[in-house]
Amino acid sequence: MAPDGGWGRVPRSREGPRFHGQVIRKSRTDMQFSGNKGLRLKSGGACPKNHAIPDGTFAPTSLRLYRGADSWMPCDGVALVVEVTSTKPQADRSAKRRCYALGGIPLYLLVDREASSITLFSDPEGDDYREHRTRPLGKPLSLPEPFGFDLDTADFL
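Given the sequence above, the corresponding C-alpha cells read:
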C-alpha cells in the first residue's frame, strides 16, 4: 500500500507482458523490469506526492537496483517508467508525469488507452519534460538510448 494511501492502484493491462518482453529482448542495454515497484520521489510544485507506483519500471541490469530494494526505493538509476491509463487518466497524464520529471527519471512512457496513443516524455527539467513524442497506437515509437530500438505498438490495439 502507498505510504499515505496515494497512487497505489495497480491496473491490469493486456499490454504489460508483451511490452516489457519486447523491451527486454530488443534493448541495446540489458534491462531489468519491475512491475508496480514503489518509487520515492521529490514533492513540490506540480508534484503533490512524494511517492508513486508506476505500472512498470526499467533499469539497467548492471545497476542491480531491484535486488534487496525496499518496497519504496529511490528513483536514482531508473531509466524508464511506464504508465497505462485506467480509471484516473489525468493523474497519469499530468501529476505523475511532473513527479517523474522532478525525480530526474530520464524517460516516461504513457500508454493512453482513452486517446489510443503512446507518448514518450524525455529530457526532464524541473517538474516537467522538455521533449515529448506522441504516436497513435499501432505505429512504432523510437526509444532512445539506452534502449535504442523502435517499439512496436501494434499489439497494444
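Residues 1-17 have pLDDT under 50 and may be disordered. Try to locate this feature in the C-alpha cell string yourself.
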